[in-house]
User: Which sequence fits this backbone?
C-alpha cells in the first residue's frame, strides 16, 4: 500500500501547490483518491507528474462539502467517469444529483469497510459533517483526514473500531488535541493545520513536513 499526497498548500519540486487537499491510496486491489483539492487542472498535473493513469482510479472519497476538497472532482470525472464516489450522506441533494448523473454515487452514514484494508469513519461532527479514511491492517492503521472538523477525539474513536491507530496524514484545522497524537509512529499534518509548528515541536521524532509528491509505502497487505 502506497499513500501519496497529490494536492496540498506545499509541493515538492515539479509539482504544483494549491489550497486544498488530496491523497492517493494505491493497493494491490484498488486505486483510491481521497479528496480532489480545488483546481482540477492542478490535480491532473500532479497526478500525471506521478505517472498515475487516471483510468486506474476506481474510487473517489470526498471528506466533506467544502470547495477546497471537492473542486477538482468534476474535472476528474470528465477524464474518468467509471468510478464510485463516496460522500457523506448529509451532502446537499443538488450536489449528490450532479455526482450521480456522472458517476456511481455511494452515500456514507456509518463507519464501514469500502475496500480491502480501507475503511471510512462514517460521517462525523455536528455543524460540519466529515468522513476520514482509515487504511492498513488492524495492528497498524493510518488515518487520512481532510480537515478534522469533527475533532481528533471523535475521529480517533471511530478509527479505533477497526484496530490500533499508528499514524495520521492530512489536515487538522485548528485542533489543539495534542494528547490524541501521543504514541503515533507518524504525524504528517498538512493543508489547513493551524498549529503545525507546535505539533512539530512536541512530536519532532515522528513529525514529517509534507506536501504534494510526498509518499509513504507500507508492506504488502492481504
Assistant:
Amino acid at each position: 500500500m502506497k499513500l501519496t499526497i497529490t494536492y496540498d498548500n506545499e509541493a515538492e519540486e515539479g509539482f504544483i501547490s494549491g489550497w486544498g487537499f488530496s491523497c492517493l491510496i494505491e493497493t494491490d486491489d484498488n486505486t483510491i483518491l481521497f479528496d480532489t483539492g480545488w483546481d482540477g487542472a492542478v490535480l491532473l498535473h500532479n497526478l500525471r507528474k506521478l505517472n498515475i493513469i487516471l483510468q486506474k482510479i476506481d474510487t473517489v472519497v470526498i471528506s466533506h462539502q467544502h470547495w477546497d476538497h471537492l473542486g477538482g472532482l468534476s474535472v476528474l470525472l470528465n477524464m474518468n467517469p467509471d468510478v464510485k464516489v463516496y460522500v457523506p450522506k448529509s451532502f446537499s441533494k443538488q450536489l449528490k444529483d450532479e455526482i450521480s448523473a456522472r458517476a456511481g454515487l455511494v452515500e456514507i452514514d456509518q463507519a464501514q469497510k469500502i475496500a480491502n484494508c480501507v475503511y471510512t469513519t462514517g460521517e462525523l461532527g455536528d455543524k460540519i459533517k466529515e468522513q476520514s479514511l482509515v487504511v492498513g491492517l488492524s495492528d497498524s492503521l493510518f488515518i487520512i483526514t481532510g480537515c478534522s472538523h469533527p475533532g481528533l477525539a471523535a475521529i480517533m474513536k471511530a478509527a479505533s473500531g477497526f484496530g490500533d491507530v499508528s499514524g495520521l496524514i492530512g489536515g487538522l484545522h485548528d485542533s489543539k488535541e495534542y494528547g490524541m497524537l501521543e504514541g503515533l509512529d507518524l504525524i504528517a499534518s498538512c493543508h489547513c493545520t493551524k498549529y503545525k509548528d507546535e505539533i512539530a515541536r512536541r512530536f519532532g521524532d515522528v513529525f514529517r513536513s509534507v506536501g504534494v509528491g510526498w509518499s509513504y509505502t507500507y508492506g504488502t497487505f492481504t
Q: What stands out?
A: Residues 40-49 form the longest helix (10 residues). DSSP finds six helices and 13 strands in the chain.
